[in-house]
Write a structure and sequence with these properties.
- Strand 4 and strand 5 form a beta hairpin.
- The N and C termini lie far apart (52 Å).
- The protein has 341 residues and is α+β, with helices and mostly antiparallel strands.
- Helix 4 packs across helix 8, helix 6 packs across helix 8 and helix 9 packs antiparallel against helix 10.
- The strands form 3 sheets. A 5-stranded antiparallel β-sheet has the order 1-2-3-5-4, sandwiched between helices. Strands 6-9 form a two-stranded antiparallel ribbon. The chain has a two-stranded antiparallel sheet with strand order 7-8.
- The chain is built from 10 helices and 9 strands.
């Protein structure tokens, strides 16, 4: 008598993994390990010999796993630290990967000025240089004006209009145009697109890259900004500027940046990139809350608002927009957060 088709995705994933390893499905130990802002879920598979693997469940109707597989293979062949791919069923949306443990870089951070936090960021910056030097961007989608614009438009659409009920401020169009132009003026490299402490896993004292399926060919400063203006730290302007300058010097030395790129020019580009990313994140976090029902993102909005203000303070002709942030947006945000259960 034929076996019944498994009813749930978890059951289907269990049967798929069991068939790969010649095991009975009911003997397989699967533990939910993590979820993320997408529809992907991760399960830890315990095999009889004591080996563990990570199973990715990415429903194909919501998530296309082809980019993840292609990038994983390319980056691993380039000598980059990414999880090894052991098995795949792209039609079902199932992948079997190395288990890198449960310690993202964020678990090692101890405050903005703690020596451990600074040291781990130094190590992450070394990995970023390796990523940009080893991984070629040619096969990746372009981080072009259309994509940059769609990301920026998340701010007025989701954060201002749908969540706060605010009108788009005067000067938005000019700011939007300037940020896009600044991004497109930079050299194009491989961009992870979320090179954040949560996507750098610590395994056997080494950092590994994960969640790279959205990688693009784009501005050289983007991943630098993802790390230095991320979710967990707000570094002093002097510390931020020192890291940006050190990055510029190394990128000039190995040819990623033209030798004519001055410290002042690259610092402005980095600050503009940081403003673009902060505006994008403010919009995405509101969309995750309103559209997808994801809890926990709203509490990070003030942190990215501070990032945005830090960035705009270093850019010319942004006094009017900063004044609007201070006198209209920030109070409206505070009121909305206070009224939100």
């Amino acid at each position: 008598m034929p076996q019944a088709t498994p009813a749930t995705r978890t059951e289907r994933l269990r049967h798929w993994a069991a068939s790969r390893h010649g095991l009975a499905p009911d003997t397989l130990a699967l533990c939910l390990a993590a979820g993320d802002a997408s529809f992907r879920r991760y399960y830890r598979l315990h095999l009889p010999d004591g080996t563990t693997r990570m199973l990715m469940d990415a429903p194909p109707e919501q998530e296309d796993s082809h980019p993840f597989v292609a990038i994983a293979r390319h980056w691993r062949s380039a000598g980059l630290p990414v999880p090894r791919l052991h098995g795949e069923d792209l039609e079902a949306g199932f992948l079997e990967l190395d288990d890198l443990g449960d310690t993202p870089l964020q678990a090692r951070l101890r405050g903005d000025t703690h020596p451990d936090t600074l040291a781990w960021h130094e190590r992450a910056l070394v990995l970023l240089h390796e990523l940009q030097n080893r991984a070629t961007p040619e096969a990746l989608p372009p981080y072009d004006a259309a994509l940059l614009g769609r990301e920026l438009d998340l701010f007025p659409d989701w954060c201002l209009g749908r969540w706060l009920g605010l009108s788009t401020p005067p000067g938005w169009s000019a700011l939007r145009e300037m940020l896009i132009a600044s991004a497109l003026a930079q050299p194009v490299v491989t961009v992870h697109r979320d090179f954040d402490a949560m996507n750098l896993m610590l395994h056997d004292d080494d950092l590994y890259l994960i969640d790279f399926q959205d990688a693009v060919a784009g501005p050289i400063s983007y991943d630098l900004i993802s790390l230095l203006r991320g979710r967990y730290c707000r570094f002093a302007p002097e510390r931020f500027a020192a890291w940006v300058e050190a990055f510029r010097r190394r990128a000039v030395a190995d040819g990623r940046l033209p030798a004519t790129t001055t410290a002042e020019a690259f610092h402005r580009q980095a600050q503009a990139m940081a403003a673009q990313r902060a505006l994008k994140v403010l919009g995405i976090f509101c969309r995750l809350t309103l559209r997808d029902g994801r809890d926990g993102y709203l509490e990070r909005l003030p942190h990215f608002l501070d990032h945005l203000d830090d960035s705009l303070a270093s850019l010319p002709d942004q006094d009017a927009f900063r004044a609007w942030l201070t006198h209209e947006f920030r109070p409206a945000l505070a009121r909305r957060l206070e009224a939100t259960p």
